[in-house]
Amino acid sequence: MSPVPTTPGSPPERPLSALPSPVARALAFTAILVGGFAGGLIGYTLVRIQCHGQCGTGRGVGAFLGAVFAALGMSVVAVLVLRALGEWRQISDRERERDAANRRRP
After folding, report:
1. Is 70 exposed, middle or buried (CB count within 10 Å of its CB: 0-12, 13-18, 19+)?
2. pLDDT digits over 8-61, tens only?
3. DSSP the chain
4. Do 42 and 73 meet the contact criterion of CB atoms below 8 Å apart?
5. Number of domains observed in the structure of the chain
6. Do the domain assignments include residue 11?
7. N- to C-terminal Cα distance for the chain?
8. 93 lies in which domain range?
9. Is residue 84 domain-resident?
10. Is residue 15 part of a domain?
11. Partners of 16 in the β-ladder
12. Is this prediction's pTM over 0.90?
């Protein structure tokens, strides 16, 4: 489905989609990766501070669990942000249509 201009000189109408823009999705994915990395560092450091002696396995488990939990938490935040962006775009499109209709009235 290709966008078709509604009237001459107006911008092309985009097809309806709930899918966020590719840039927004890429930023959300990057945020999840950074959050997971930070969680892994925090988990590793917590075990390193508390454990003395042979703690290689504990440090690995701490890093893994920290990374997983932080990435899961960040993914929830990313989904909520992407949904809010979609709603914001829908509201602004509705307002733009309303303003255009008001301008057409005599």
Report:
1. buried
2. 555 556 666 667 888 999 999 999 999 999 999 999 999 999 998 899 999 999
3. ----BSSTTSPBPPPP--SPPHHHHHHHHHHHHHHHHHHHHHHHHHHHHH--SS-HHHHHHHHHHHHHHHHHHHHHHHHHHHHHHHHHHHHHHHHHHHHHHHHH--
4. no
5. 1
6. no
7. 34
8. 22-101
9. yes
10. no
11. none
12. no
